[in-house]
Amino acid sequence: MNPLRIAFSTLAFPEATLANATSLARSWGYTGIELRLIDGQVIESSLSAAERARVKQTVAGSGLDIAIVDSMIQLATENPEPELRRFLELANEWESPLIRIYGGQLFESRRANRVEIELAAAVLERVIPTAEQLGVAMAIETHDAFSASASVAELLGLVDSRWVGALWDTHHPYRVGESPVEVRKNLGSRVLHVQVKDARRSAEHKSGWQYVLLGDGEVPVREIIGLLAAGDYNGYISVEWEKYWHPEIQEPEIALPQHLKLLQEWLQEIAREQS
Q: What's the predicted TM-score (pTM) here?
């Protein structure tokens, strides 16, 4: 069984400074951080040199590893390459091995979709030399039009490089009807990062889903963890508690310790089952 490390996303801390967020998470037992917000603000590649240095120093002082830097880049948009290169440079400066990117929008027509996927693949091919030079890989999230792992896998099939892979968000493939086994088969060894969250169907919520504490929903997170532990995945499991987007959910002081405790319990149980 592969030892899986546990990180948290700073999306959980919309009202905290980075220093406070890292200090709290480290005290609870987290070992990695997924940088999405800095002092409650979405990361931008235009951060000044002084701000970049402060972020690096703050995280290093906490003893946390930067697992991934999250961008809002969509490949299927006009000229995403300059921003991709800027985020790769930012991640390199922060000693992160990954950046998160999105595939972009797709269309109802299968033929139009294929054109968009081919254009996205061409963007990645042009940026791969920069990624390799900087030592930072690009992880395409199962999200929005690419929520299905099959869509991400189709894109990855056109880009044969270890500098491009997938970010498996546990909720979205399940939401669109894919089982953990299907996702694992589709993405295989190309999974570079995993975000965990739990949810249950709810007619009262606009999206049709309500985010809940780990284990209180229907997303088969434990099964997913078991598949990862039994395979060749050696990246982080990152708790993505989306307090920034959903202010009604529990405070991070409740949710993050609860997620970590249950994940650790599951990992111990899975280790015994697989030994």
A: 0.96
